[in-house]
Specification:
By secondary structure, the chain is mostly helical. The protein has helices at 12-18, 29-36, 47-58, 73-85, 87-100, 105-119; strands at residues 22-25, 40-44, 63-67.
C-alpha cells in the first residue's frame, strides 16, 4: 500500500481522480469527494460539519472517524487501513457519492428559478 499526504494542494481535482481513497475534514470538500466518487475517512473539525458527516455516513458515502480532537493516531490509522483493504466498501462509497452528487445541482436551481419567474407572469 502506498500512502501520500497532501496538504492544500494546488491540483486537488487531479489528486482526487488519481486516488483510491482520502482522509478529509468534513467540510465542503466532502461534496467534491462524493462527486468524484472518492471514498473517504472523514474527520469532524467544527460543529457545522457534524450533521453533514453523520448524514453522509448514513447514506454510505464516507466513513466517519468522529471528532478530530477525540481520535488518536492509532484509531485513525486503523480506520484508514480498514477502508484501504475493504475494496467492496470503497466501491459502494464511490457509487453512493456519485449518485448523491451528480454535478447538475446548479442547473436544477436555475431551472427552478426560471420556472418561478415564468409562473409570476
Amino acid at each position: 500500500m502506498t500512502v501520500q499526504f497532501h496538504r492544500n494542494p494546488a491540483n486537488m481535482a487531479e489528486l482526487m481522480a488519481w486516488s483510491d481513497m482520502s482522509v478529509s475534514a468534513g467540510g465542503s470538500t466532502l461534496w467534491e469527494l462524493a462527486f468524484m466518487g472518492l471514498p473517504s475517512v472523514t474527520l469532524v473539525l467544527a460543529e457545522n460539519q457534524e450533521g453533514a458527516v453523520r448524514r453522509l455516513e448514513e447514506q454510505g458515502v464516507c466513513q466517519s472517524a468522529g471528532w478530530a480532537t477525540q481520535v488518536d493516531s492509532r484509531t485513525l490509522a486503523e480506520r484508514i487501513e480498514f477502508l484501504a483493504y475493504a475494496e467492496g466498501l470503497r466501491r459502494r462509497f464511490s457509487v453512493a457519492g456519485k449518485d448523491l452528487v451528480d454535478g447538475l445541482g446548479s442547473q436544477r436551481v436555475i431551472q427552478a428559478m426560471l420556472s418561478k419567474l415564468g409562473g409570476e407572469d
